[in-house]
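Q: Convert this sequence to structure tokens.
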Amino acid sequence: MTRKTMLAVAVLTSAMFACGQDTEKVVIDGSSTVGPIAKAFATYFMAANPDINVTVSESGSGNGAKSMVAGNCDIADMSRAMKPVEFKHAVENDVLPVPHVVALDGIALVTHLSNPVQELSMEQIRDIYLGRIRNWSELGGPARPIVVITRDTNSGTFESFEKLVMGDKKIMSGAEVVGSNGQMRSRVESTPAAIGYVGLGFVEGVRALTIDGVEPTPRAIKTGDYPVARPLFMYTDGYPELGSALYRFVTIYLSSEGQEIVEDLGFVPVTSY
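A:
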């Protein structure tokens, strides 16, 4: 029996056991990039703790921060660091955001598998998203207009991309907007002339480009050689009480099982055993 099957059986058993009992809850909301990690952690955690229910929503990093400040979730998943204005708003509402870096991630520039272009420079990527380069033929590809796809402005991935790639420049107004990493992957996978960007856990079915001669490998992300990399966060209100359900959940990433989960999803663990 595979590990995933064993976990699924354990979760179903746990759900049956917990039915009719008062259950403790851990509520999570925020980034769609961190979401798969939170969901996999939840499956693992509930298998070991049948009396605790963990729910995960993916409304975006910004909404995750708002939800935690409003008291609607225990953990805010964020694919970027909390902004000073968000931190100030939290403190003004008696919430002290504490970051837990649960994984590292590279933002992969992705294209359709049929596109022969396999490498771009940061300057070329910036020019594509500024609308200065509009046809793949300008980059050694087919004579076909580039379909530029970006994320909604509430996305942490969007804000990381804008900061790391665009600098002080704004993405062209005609870019197509999608609402999640999954939607981005699907759109690029089905559109031969498309270019988009996703977290490293979402590159199946599309081509992840080499940037400035560096592939988005776990090692290149860990060493900082890959130029579009970032930490992924879970924020809590204060540091969780030692031994509490929230503490045990938010520290899963430090265990060997947590690191295996992170790696299985295509992200990079922050530590290694």
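The radius of gyration is 20 Å.
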